Q: What sequence folds into this?
């Protein structure tokens, strides 16, 4: 599938919740084929910025431009893969059914989507288990598989390693590498800056947020 997004340009984005300013004039460029790591302490605005880039929240001021798609929110969402703190699956459906449903809702072949998911995330052992009966790490793998079902060109991952064991983290690193090399815009929020140390992709950009501002390129 051809990736349709080249860049996401964030220009002077501010977001207020009532009198509280969570983001204060944030500017950054997210580029296809690069891995962007968004870092910072709790409450610094990482998830808020991710939600704005993912079109789930409007900025109070400033703009987000998606090239070459333009300003069509639905067109951007068609290119979006999202993993949030809430895993957004259906607890009474099995791992297989969750992935196949996500594919069906996007007019994709459910069987083919499940085949890719089970190969990438080693889900065969809990394929037909209800999500509510799966471990935290298994549910995280289901959520990752659902986020990637459409081969998105904009992939936003908020704490993707949560609940994963060592093998799961290694698999996550490999999947992120594959998505970057396939030409996606990939943004990862993580409290573990060492998680992607040494990942074999052409460019890794580290953005550190501090009190709602880009503090510096993180080392």
A:
């Amino acid at each position: 599938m051809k990736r349709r997004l080249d860049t996401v340009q964030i220009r002077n984005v501010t977001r207020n919740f009532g009198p509280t300013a969570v983001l204060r004039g944030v500017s950054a460029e997210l580029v296809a084929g690069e891995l962007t790591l968004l870092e910072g302490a709790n409450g610094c605005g990482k998830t808020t910025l991710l939600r704005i880039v993912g079109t789930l929240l409007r900025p109070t001021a400033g703009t987000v431009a998606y090239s070459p798609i333009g300003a069509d929110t639905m067109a951007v969402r068609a290119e979006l893969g999202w993993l949030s703190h809430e895993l957004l699956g259906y607890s009474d459906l099995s791992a297989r059914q969750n992935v196949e449903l996500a594919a069906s809702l996007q007019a994709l072949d459910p069987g083919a989507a499940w085949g890719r998911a089970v190969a990438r995330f080693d889900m065969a052992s809990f394929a037909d288990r209800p999500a509510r009966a799966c471990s935290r790490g298994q549910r995280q793998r289901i959520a990752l598989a659902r986020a990637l079902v459409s081969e998105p060109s904009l992939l936003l991952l908020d704490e993707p390693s949560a609940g994963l064991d060592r093998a799961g983290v290694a698999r996550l690193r490999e999947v992120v590498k594959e998505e970057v090399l396939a030409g996606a815009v990939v943004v990862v929020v993580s409290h573990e800056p060492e998680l992607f140390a040494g990942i074999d992709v052409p460019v890794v950009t580290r953005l550190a947020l501090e009190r709602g501002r880009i503090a510096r390129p993180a080392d």
Q: What stands out?
A: DSSP finds six helices and nine strands in the chain. The chain has a mean pLDDT of 92.
